Amino acid sequence: MNLKYFIFAQKKIKLRQLRYRNQNAAMKKIIALLACIFLFEAYAQAQETIYLNNQKEPIECQVVEINSTEVKYKPADAEQLVVGVNKSEVHKIVFKSGRVQYFTDPLKDFSYYKEQKKWIAKVGILSPVSGFTDFYLEKSLKPGKSLEFQVNITGLGKNVPILGSGIQNGNSNEDIFYDQKGFSAGLGLKVLRMPDFELANRKIMHILQGSYIKPNVILGYYQRNMLYNDPTNNIDKTKVKGVVTALVSITLGKQWILDNTISIDIYALIGLGIDNFRRQQAKTISDAGGIDPYEYNKYLPYRNFGYTRLGRGDEGIAIGAGIKVGYLFHWKKPKKDMVGGMDKMRERLNK
User: Which of 345, 349, 347, 343 is nearest to 69 (CA)?
Assistant: First the structure.
């Protein structure tokens, strides 16, 4: 009797243990299922985050489309509304999976222009007519900015008559010329206007092309004939004097690039011109004990080599204009993987 009771008790204990194990396993399955449902629900309700360049607060939303020009999304507080934002305004998107996608503006990313030539050697095509020749060297620093060096060789061009061909040298019929010789150099920083959108597509153009504004500084020195009247014989004569010049100006212009090879640049400048021409003219006449036969000239604008200066003293408003033609080149030969056409850049832009 005791043995049967013992066997029965053992069976009952084992049955209870089995039942407890089954209940425990079922509870674990239920907990796991609830956890999966909770995680799935949380994942389904997770939002993407858009960070804009000109806005501090990020946008919580659901991104529905990214095309070549804009990002479309549904705001978290208005899921029925689809909003589009320009890709150039987007810094990055953090997706709910944790992946981060960064956006760069192709118009401001230097790598998009790596196939283009970044150097231009230019010459002023109208300056030789005025008695000098301008040479320029422009280097692109980054999209929208370039550095331009300038060298002016005074005398490399037409020898211009003083006050026109009506001035005669003594009793001869020869004109009196400037006989100018000198040199000046300058430096300017070009700030180019970047292109806008056109018909929902970007304008792909050369990195050195477009309208620009350029602060500029030029320093120079040249020698020229100074005219005076000899009181002993009443004959007009000349004496060579040196002229020191300085120009601080703002240049406005527009540059076109043809086939990544030829540049055409039309510009106009205005600024402050400083030189000692009138002082040297007065000293020449004073040293000779003569008079200035063309005293009215001090009321006229002084045509310096590179610009025209207004004012009767040593400084005044300076104005000028011209046309430059240039040739584009690589300072260093590009790598083979950098060589390509505009189509490759457009493909990167669309991506």
Answer: 349
